Amino acid sequence: MPSPRIAIFPGSFDPLTNGHLDVIRRTARLFDRVIVAVLINPKKRAVFAVDDRVAMITESCAGIGQPGQVTADAFEGLLVHYAARQGACAVIRGLRSGVDFDYERPRALMNAHLAPEIETVCVIGADRLAHISSRLVKEVAGLGGSVEGLLPDAIAQRLVARLRAGKSES
Ligand code: PNS
User: Fold this and answer.
1) What domains sit in the chain, N to C, each tagged with a CATH number?
2) What is the mean pLDDT of the chain?
3) pTM over cut 0.85
């Protein structure tokens, strides 16, 4: 039996949005397993702790693909080292625009330089979600705007509660 084709979808996911979920759904149609991997980055101020982000991703992805096909994890250090440890053949990045492409291209080339056996696969998300980013969602929620349709309801509730309480990690 051929070995399962594993994709890593890395990111900050602070928090996971409907844009991310769209990319995860598309990726699950292409790969046997998808690992959504949260970068542990103590230098970056985050609203949610890494463990909370992993838990929210696990909960939100429970219905995608086959049971156990999409999982969540956290990693630190170089992405390609983590991907190799997981036996992944691909790193997934979502593209919303040419700006995203310009950001991703040198990173994909650097990752290919470091680990030529791991392919970066860019997934173009749905146009109707192209305005969504974790950063903008936090800005809107922080200023009292509606975040309906931008992220899973359970995450939206937690985000609003957290921002109201004025809490962030680190
Ligand atoms: O959601 P983000 O913040 O756009 O995700 C960025 C991420 C996690 C994909 C990127 O920062 C990353 O891969 N960091 C790991 C460190 C690394 O491997 N750096 C070299 C890549 S060129």
Assistant:
1) 6-163 (3.40.50.620)
2) 96
3) yes
